[in-house]
Amino acid sequence: xxxxxxxxxxxxxxxxxxxxxxxxxxxxxxxxxxxxxxxxxxxxxxxxxxxxxxxxxxxxxxxxxxxxxxxxxxxxxxxxxxxxxxxxxxxxxxxxxxxxxxxxxxxxxxxxxxxxxxxxxxxxxxxxxxxxxxxxxxxxxxxxxxxxxxxxxxxxxxxxxxxxxxxxxxxxxxxxxxxxxxxxxxxxxxxxxxxxxxxxxxxxxxxxxxxxxxxxxxxxxxxxxxxxxxxxxxxxxxxxxxxxxxxxxxxxxxxxxxxxxxxxxxxxxxxxxxxxxxxxxxxxxxxxxxxxxxxxxxxxxxxxxxxxxxxxxxxxxxxxxxxxxxxxxxxxxxxxxxxxxxxxxxxxxxxxxxxxxxxxxxxxxxxxxxxxxxxxxxxxxxxxxxxxxxxxxxxxxxxxxxxxxxxxxxxxxxxxxxxxxxxxxxxxxxxxxxxxxxxxxxxxxxxxxxxxxxxxxxxxxxxxxxxxxxxxxxxxxxxxxxxxxxxxxxxxxxxxxxxxxx
Length: 502
Description:
By secondary structure, the chain is α/β, with parallel strands linked by helices. It has helices at residues 6-22, 33-47, 59-66, 70-82, 125-131, 154-167, 182-192, 210-221, 236-244, 262-271, 293-306, 363-374, 379-390, 394-419, 445-454, 485-500; strands spanning 86-89, 93-96, 119-120, 140-141, 204-207, 227-232, 248-255, 259-260, 274-279, 309-313, 338-343, 355-358, 425-426, 434-438, 457-458, 474-478. It has 16 helices and 16 strands. The strands form four sheets. Strands 3, 5, 6, 7, 8, 9, 10, 11 and 12 form a nine-stranded mixed β-sheet that branches. A three-stranded antiparallel β-sheet has the order 13-14-16, with helices on one face. A two-stranded antiparallel ribbon has the order 1-2. Helix 9 links the parallel strand 6 (227-232) and strand 7. Helix 8 packs across helix 12 and helix 14 runs parallel beside helix 16.
């Protein structure tokens, strides 16, 4: 039986009202004004006149157009919002929601159910082989989630570096010191406003990338043997970091679209001595899930109530399609319990190797560790990055990048839907370059991976993203690097191999 969603219920209500009007049982005038407006918009959505993602007129414009009070339009919009026909985006307005977020009927992966006890982390050689090194030249790799040269504006980066070197050439002959150049830290504080954060430049520390920032945070808030909670599945590099710092991992159930379960996290906090949470609220790696804003606010409150250090990885935020999902957990933090880590490696230039962190109440401790062990970065590159993120064209460049990524994601999901066996599940991220795919139970995952390697196709198996070797039926498909038509053809062939691996 087809599941009756809120959208269908609302649609049936409007159809019934229209039928009653057409058959003389009631007049249009007898319908509440907000229902009349909602019915018009719903019909436009149904016919495709208002496609998914289209922006609705502002409340004021719609009220003027319809000759009604703004409160009537607000009521109509809220009614459609309750029916999941439209969605509000803070400071942006109302947009038509996707009626089938999974696309072409392909279901999303199942919610993870990890073990309820912490584990020591032991990374096997497979992860190093697949994710930690460049693949052989003759192999098509699906291991990268970083945009390749075809998506990044190398000329823009080159100009910024050259101009910085010319303007401040003396910096090439002096040792950089401290938390990073003041110019970059001020630029980052301005940039953070788009993440919902009001940060003091003096509290920002420039690092050698986002992972360097995460390591500094964990060193500041934990000791060897401590328990760190994280999403399940989680980023392979997170597991590497926990292993190197001799920290224990406690994986928390995670929804493929909405992210980490805060109810499960609350249970863990009540029963385990969890010292920190390592989380990627926007476009998590590998699931691509994004936490709703209400959950982000709740997480900040939980951190304050439990004295929990929340290490937030925001590296993918600018790749997200939706403005509201770019707002960080840090933006709701009133007590300094959220440590925000960020980098532009996924959006501007991986080669700059620059990231940054605002560590809240742990800023002094993190600065001490940074000054003793991390050292300063290249000042000229810091000035180039400051220029890049401050340019008026940066927002346009990010919109163009998101548009290209959206098209690539759609092509990959379409290929998977058409060529992989029935019962395959695939994530539906709101941006980014990663897909999490769950094969049907009848597919022998080991045989499938062996067949892919035999044909020079490299795809990371799901077990790399967990401490307990789970997710054996899953794989992470990275759409980054130098993408080509050969990759699309390889995806088709992978679907055929999956069908044969019984």
